[in-house]
Request: fold
Amino acid sequence: MRTRHAFPTFRSIGLWFLLLLCQAMALAVSTPAQAHGDTVKVVVTGQREGHVTADITWENDGDAIDETVAATVNAVSPDGARSAGPWKLVRDTGKPAGWTTAEALPPGSWKVSVDVGFPALGHGDKEVAVPVVDPAPATSPTAPQPAASGTPDASATPSAAAPGASADPSPSSASGAAPRAAGDDNGADGTLWWTTAGVAATALAGAAAGVLLRRARARRLRS
Reply:
């Protein structure tokens, strides 16, 4: 009897190819991770204006972690009365291995712990002191300075006297003004005297005319 040899079908070939492809991808992904190691190094460097700062690198080679880091930050006061967190870490700009928190710790002493869960496990802690920052003193508004001007102020400088004029009259002008004032007074007195004399003469003439008229009427009545 002849025995038949089973030949692989197209379905079995496809399954074997898919399995080999998955194994190759797994090896390609695990190679960089194995080169860095399976743990990360966490160093809490301190704080900046209350924001916790830390450096996270691969444990084996000290390279910075390029992918996203999933980590939590917790802080507890020495007496345990106060606590903060959990907060997450975000990239610290300008530092390849630097990470920080978006939240800020209040002033005081804190024991800060950072726990990393991805891309690998890591832990770090440190005591951090946040100083009290005094508020800036309020600046009082300054008085406006007078604007500089090239021309002098008319109100500040005395006015120049007219040429030939003097504040104090000279003796000659004073003596000349006295007779002129006396002559004016004499003229005014003379005018008043002539006016008074004219009024008196007019009154006497009226009285005389009245007397003459009465006498003429009396004569007519007698005749």
Summary: The chain is about 35% helix and 25% strand. The longest helix spans residues 171-222.
